[in-house]
Amino acid sequence: MTFRKKLFRVIRASNSAQNATLGQQIRHKGETNLPRKGWPLARRKFRDLRSIGISRISQIFAPDMTTLAVRRTADFERELIWGWMDSVHLGVVAFDASGTIVVLNHAVERLCGSRADQALGQHASQWCESLGADALFTDWLLSHASTGQRELTLTKDGVERHFAINLSTVKHASGEPFRVVGITEITEIQRLQAELDRQKRHWEAMNAGVVISDVSQPDMPIIYVNRKFEQMSGYQASEVIGKNCRFLQGADQDQPALELLRLAIKNQTNGYALLRNYKKDGTPFLNELFISPVRDHRGVTTHMIGVQHERAWSGGGEP
Fold this sequence. Notes:
CATH topology of the largest domain: Beta-Lactamase
Helix content: 40-55%
CATH superfamily of the largest domain: PAS domain
Number of helices: 12
Number of domains: 3
CATH architecture of the largest domain: 2-Layer Sandwich
Structural class: alpha+beta
């Protein structure tokens, strides 16, 4: 029913016997020659109906307006959620209790090659098969007791890609459970991790102490030391991670060679210094230290690597 028809119904009701009180109130205001019915009353005297008959108008319109507001809010929230899901890099797939896929965002198409128009309405096992996932992964995905994370490796055109899969269960307002799958590609992360592991094996095999500090964090904390450093200093890795390397100098913080290191760190260049350091038991030793910056793909220095060699020191005086 249109607004005009609803308003006309209000006007007609105002002139009926059931609304005599409303008519008396209008006439009491001095409106003695009001038209008895019809649209002219709405056009000429809507002010009086608005002030006196607002409750009746609200009773008629409020339910429809509330329903419309709720519908618009739900539509807005739905559009907002879908807009967010299509803009993020996280792949999202959801299927109902029967295993039927009901949600698949654009990121899944980009990550896995699954087209939404083909996957929606498909059973999750068919979707897993189309990806090339093994039976163990499919069983884990479909098991109602399964939650948590798992890695998935897919091979396409001879190229391996690695994904982190997060599986959870959510309940709709109706109480119906849905399985939600989050998909993140970790191929590059695994490549970097493999490269880091290779570097660590190299550092562990070195006959020199290796210390790596994070330049991006305040006070450049140590994030890695090798076994040779532990043997040289007497400190375990767990005791030094998070500290600045200066703790090895003890109270001997005024060594001229330290200025050379500070200048190298400031200019993000290679540096060299021969420092008096102190082991965990307080024994002094000479530390021949070489430092080098590590830069990311943008050329920004992210870490400093220090390579240490213990040198003989007879004690006393400058090294």
